[in-house]
Design brief:
- It contains eleven helices and eleven strands.
- The chain is an alpha+beta fold.
- Strands 1, 2, 3, 4, 5, 6, 7, 8, 9, 10 and 11 form an eleven-stranded mixed beta sheet that branches.
- The longest helix is centred in the C-terminal third of the chain and has 26 residues.
- It starts with 8 loop residues before the first strand and ends with a helix.
Length: 310
Amino acid sequence: MQDVRAEAQPVRLKFEIGARTLLSVRRSLVRVPLTLAEARSGPAPVLPSLDRAADGYIVTSLPEDQMAALAAGAGGMLPFVRQRYTRYYLDFAGTYDGWFAGLSSNARQGLRRKAKKIAAASGGTLDVRRFRTAEELAAFHPVARAISATTYQERLLGSGLPEGADFLRSMAALAAADQVRAWLLNIAGEPAAYLYCPIHGDTVIYAYVGHDPKFNDWSPGAVLQLEAMQDLFGEARFAAFDFTEGEGQHKRQFATGGVECVDLLLLRPTLANRAVMSALGGFNSSVAGAKRLVQGAGLGGFAKRLRRGG
């Protein structure tokens, strides 16, 4: 352990079914997030010292093969896996055409068909707007915010594009340093989808994305993502696109690789923390068992709603 102390923050440990939170328990935790580069090839993280008031750590994007060693070296802390997922990424080595040719034939045909449909509804060409400077992003933000307000990311997950003054200042600062890219897709003159990506070093971060649900059948997010990839390949200055934590069909479709990761809780071995971990473990096992039961009974539609929390 190193002597540097990191500030603990309140974290809600959620009891969830799909996107629906039934209840949550607060714990004061030190976040230890790993970057894509660290998850891909970096050494195991070094945990900072804890203040007395802190309950423990939450380590995100920890490669699964590092979990046992980190837990064993954590000084008797209680380990608990919050989630498992593949952290997908796209390497910008090579060309856009080479990358696109590497997608499955079904994916290529589907993307071309969707793009053609959207272009036809927009006068024959895709209406994609690109944003990079502070002035451009000031125009982007209110339009993207209006889209974000309609999305499930915001309504169910609380992870829509932020609108506060702190975010606007951060966005302007990133733009001044040429460390952000953003895109909007219009369909028949109406804003349909947005993508906002800050840049960390030579890595583009998949930070905020969404589309208006009334355009669901058009797959505007996938079409916009494809346009963004073409732009980023064309700049020839980035090493990777980081799809960040979590799964998703579009991530698997576009990615060139991935790292099997966990989000790991390490809690002090108090009675209260033991009770929380036991309750979370039991709840998660019950939800997983219910999903297996309905899937085994052939109730696919109900299982899908269960995953979504609907």
